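$ run holo --ligand "NAP" --emit tokens
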Amino acid sequence: MSVLFDRIALIGIGLIGSSLAHDVRRLGLTKQIVVATRSADTLKRAEELGLGDRYTTSSAEAVKDADLIIVSVPVGASESVAKEIAGNLKSGAIVTDVGSTKASVIAQMQPHMPDNVHFIPGHPLAGTEKSGPDAGFPGLFEGRWCIFTPVAGTDETALKRLRGFWEALGSKVDEMDAEHHDKVLAIVSHLPHIIAYNIVGTADDLETVTESEVIKYSASGFRDFTRLAASDPTMWRDVCLHNRDAILEMLARFSEDLAYLQRAIRWGEGDKIFELFTRTRAIRRSIVQAGQDVDAPDFGRPHLLDKK
Ligand code: NAP
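-- output --
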């Protein structure tokens, strides 16, 4: 593949930043990768993993002469990063991010962006429950969506260049406004994580069973929530605080629907329960058809215990 940007600066080198580094290198999309992260420990690890060509703990230093800057830090840190890099951005550079909430990131970053750079907020819908530079791997973005939420007046050529970058990583690109993104993500991502954190927390509070039965019998359903509930606490705290309105709206709807189900169970209304469970089963089929999961039993897990 050909070089798309001469120099790429990766600000933040956790799961997303390091996955980007692997792919950019593998696909030859740049001549130079500059890695920046705030702590010396993470920087050292990134260097050991060979994720970049240059390394620094200064974001301001990293963005000098970079043609593409990708900010991959918890969304609550967006403003401080924007302030730090603003004075050193090259004219014509593209600044993008990967944050899971968009209206808040725009509010934090846009006011600090100079007129001569292109700020294009983005969000790849790809990830795992792991974090840090060791968690990244090549191919994370393959076949996944990346959503841009461009601000008014965004330069079409810059948009096209950034689209080409994500497409080179194997992503499919969509565009929508930030408020719409935040609403959609509240239901498809944020609410499921909050429910998972909550159910795992509830089980943990039932101290008499947590140490034994909950873990022992977890394969009957609980286990699937624990994967989401093991996600990075800083990242998810920030998502909750920075997409507050949409999350609260979805939680209110969720509570109403839960009350409906609760009532149906209480009154033995089997037809209502059956109708809901049939409808939800069809959603799973659509996700498989859309290529966003595989149709293997138990989410394709190898049954290690069976092999013993
Ligand atoms: P991560 O693995 O935890 O890495 C976070 C990176 O941000 C590290 O380099 C860390 O630096 C740096 N950082 C942490 N707090 C910071 C602060 N206050 N100021 C400046 N830098 C800070 O996180 P990640 O999973 O890659 O997530 C990064 C972004 O991607 C988040 O905005 C998240 O919403 C978004 N995202 C995540 C996923 C996912 O599944 N994980 C998917 C899509 C989008 P040090 O280690 O040096 O402190």
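-- notes --
Residues 12-17, 37-39, 42, 72-75, 77, 80-81, 98-100, 124, 127-128, 131-132, 135, 232, 235 surround NAP (CB under 6 Å).
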